[in-house]
Every structure is written in C-alpha cells, then in structure tokens.
Amino acid sequence: MMKKVIVACGSGVATSQTVASKVERILKERGIRANVEAVDIKSLDQHIRTSDAYVAITKANKEYDIPTLNGIAFLTGMGMEEEVEKLIDALK
C-alpha cells in the first residue's frame, strides 16, 4: 500500500502546495514512494486517519496519532534535514 503524507496550512492553498511539492521532490530524490497531499486544515481530521505522516505548517492545536513534522522547516530550509529524517522514519 502506498504511504501517504499530508500537508496542511490555514487555507490549504499556497503554502501547503509549496511544501507538499518540496516534500514530494525530497522523497523522490531518496527513492521513497509516497502520496503527498496538500489539504485544508478544516478537513485535516478526515485525512489524518488514512495518513502515515502529517506536515504541519500552522501549529497543530491537537495531538495526532501519526508523526507530525514541522512544515516551516521545509519552507525555510532551517532544520529541514532533521524533519526529512523523521519523515523517512515515519514512512519506513
């Protein structure tokens, strides 16, 4: 089964799309197959159930049962390696 990563920001549009495509590219470069999807924060709960990792751009106001990564790191590049490692572990 294909692993799934979701990325959510406040609106589910600009920022999450940017981060989602970056995450997708990083995974591809490392030979990891996963479905990366940008979603609207309001529909996050439905997506969490079927996902293996969550890349949060806004501060999550609740805890989820799946690894939650810092999406800002993917935007700025600061601390990104660490988040990439966590993501790869989550998708193993």
Order of helices and strands: EHEHEEHH
Number of strands: 4
Given helix and strand content, the structural type is: alpha/beta
For this structure, what is the CATH homologous superfamily? Response regulator
User: What do the pLDDT scores average to?
Assistant: 91
| Computed Rg | 12 Å
- Tell me, briefly, the overall form: globular
Q: Give the percentage of residues in beta strands.
A: 15-25%
According to CATH, the fold-level topology is Rossmann fold
Determine and state the CATH class: Alpha Beta
Q: Helix amount, in percent?
A: 40-55%
Poorly predicted spans: none
Could you give the order of strands across the largest sheet?
Answer: 2-1-3-4
User: Major β-sheet, in short?
Assistant: 4 strands, parallel
| Distance between the amino and carboxyl termini | 12 Å
Which architecture per CATH?
3-Layer(aba) Sandwich
Count of the separate structural domains: 1
What's the tally of helices? 4
Structure commentary:
This protein has helices spanning 14-29, 44-48, 71-76, 80-91; strands spanning 3-9, 34-40, 53-56, 68-70. The protein is of the alpha/beta class. A four-stranded parallel β-sheet has the order 2-1-3-4. It has one domain: Response regulator (Rossmann fold, 3-Layer(aba) Sandwich). Helix 1 links the parallel strand 1 (3-9) and strand 2 (34-40).
